Amino acid sequence: MAFQKLDFTKLSEKEMKKRSLDFLELMKSRRSVRDFSDKPVPKDIIENIIKTAASAPSGANKQPWKFVVVENPEIKKQICIAAEAEEKEFYTHRATKEWLEDLNQFGTDWKKPFLETAPYLIIVFKEVVDTRHEEPRKNYYVNESVGIAVGFLLAAIHHAGLVSLTHTPSPMKFLEEILKRPENERAYLLIPVGYPAEDAEVPVISKKPFSEICVTG
Predict the structure, then answer these.
(1) pLDDT digits (tens, 9 = 90+) for 122-149
(2) How many domains does the chain have?
(3) How far is CA 116 from CA 30, 83, 112, 191, in A?
């Protein structure tokens, strides 16, 4: 493999601090949204967001991800129907009492109309094996790699001025079937993306204090 000199610009400590604080404030304002507007979003913005996600690091640079963008109303409807079926089963039979108690504070239920309202659904798939060769090869650190890419994706969505929700109906095999994905792909996450509805509300929540989430020594 060829190597090249790192393209790195050294910043002053003042600029580093400013950038770190600016990004902190930006990301602190990000919220998960369940009330979407159907207002159209330019497709090139979505493409730029996905390109940002695809710039994430991955095990052995295998890039074991696939992003499927759905905007067709009929396909969104199929996904909504299938997701609500799984969610209804979860809320009525699969979830434990403790799990439902934790969810009750958010006022959620099995109905997911945002899957049809949001102009785009980005479905993230993980590639369990690399099929770009004559014989399939192993992908390394797949969950970790795709998780990092999703973090980039969510940050890029927020930075672009849009809102999103990480939705995980379980199981998600219906996504592989509806979207006709190859056998080496597994659904990882379903993310509606768009503008918030004018009357959108989000719960009042707080984050753990820094002293509880970071240990230094």
Answers:
(1) 999 999 999 888 888 999 999 999 999 9
(2) 1
(3) 22, 11, 8, 12
